[in-house]
């Protein structure tokens, strides 16, 4: 899998408030042939600004969270983020996904799982550990049989919903499908209406619960 610069290794920027955790994660990234460590920052605040000032050009941010909010990592370059956190609640996970986080894993995840999450995030996929997925799905009411029977999504709507799961915006979805922004807005409006969802995040979690899309 090539990165944005055409090389095989995924360029990783690490951020953690803990020097001990930072050292351990640096060793993890350096030991993976498919990854390349391009920087290691103390704390996750203003990371996009600090990365730009340092001239760093990562493909993925690996953020080890303590008490800091995921909103501190929103990047103007829309860089994918892999978040390591213990027992994220529903609100934290939902805010993180809205902020550009592509993967949420426990802080003590195995090295192989962290590497896989980084590669997945670089490819544009969303990856959640089972507990985080459960915390999201537990807050979404089960779909009724009538909904699944009478308001099935079209194949195109399922395709759009899957791209919403990847965290893509309307313009990105439109470009990928080769259709207009207006058509994408129409599809998303139809998806929300058919699923009875009030937001994109709720539509994604409903789609997961109904088995329409897979992470």
How would you portray this structure in words?
This protein is α/β, with parallel strands linked by helices and 215 residues long. The chain folds into 2 domains: 10-137, Rossmann fold (3-Layer(aba) Sandwich); 145-210, Orthogonal Bundle (Arc Repressor Mutant, subunit A), CATH 1.10.10.10. Helix content is 47%, strand content 14%. The protein has 10 helices and 6 strands. The chain has helices spanning 19-31, 47-53, 90-98, 111-122, 130-137, 145-150, 155-165, 170-177, 181-195, 200-210, and strands at 10-16, 35-42, 60-64, 81-84, 101-105, 127-128. A 6-stranded parallel beta sheet has the order 2-1-3-4-5-6, sandwiched between helices. Helix 8 (170-177) packs across helix 9. The chain is globular. The model is unreliable at 73-77 and 144-150 (pLDDT under 50).
């Amino acid at each position: 899998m090539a990165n944005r610069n055409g090389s095989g290794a995924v360029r990783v920027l690490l951020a953690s408030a803990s020097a001990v955790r930072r050292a351990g994660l640096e060793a993890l990234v350096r030991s993976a042939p498919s990854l390349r460590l391009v920087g290691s920052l103390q704390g996750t605040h203003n990371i996009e600004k600090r990365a730009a000032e340092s001239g760093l050009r990562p493909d993925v941010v690996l953020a080890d969270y303590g008490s800091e909010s995921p909103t501190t990592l929103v990047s103007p370059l829309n860089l994918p983020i892999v978040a390591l956190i213990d027992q994220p609640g529903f609100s934290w996970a939902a805010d993180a996904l809205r902020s550009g986080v592509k993967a949420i894993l426990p802080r003590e995840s195995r090295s192989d799982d962290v590497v896989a999450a980084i590669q997945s995030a670089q490819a544009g996929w969303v990856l959640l550990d089972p507990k985080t997925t459960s915390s999201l799905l537990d807050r979404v009411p089960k779909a009724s049989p009538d909904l699944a029977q009478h308001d099935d999504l079209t194949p195109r709507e399922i395709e759009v919903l899957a791209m919403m799961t990847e965290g893509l915006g309307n313009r990105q979805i439109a470009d990928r499908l080769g259709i207009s922004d207006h058509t994408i807005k129409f599809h998303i409006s139809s998806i929300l209406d058919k699923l009875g969802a009030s937001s994109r995040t709720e539509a994604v979690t409903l789609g997961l619960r109904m088995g329409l899309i897979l992470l």
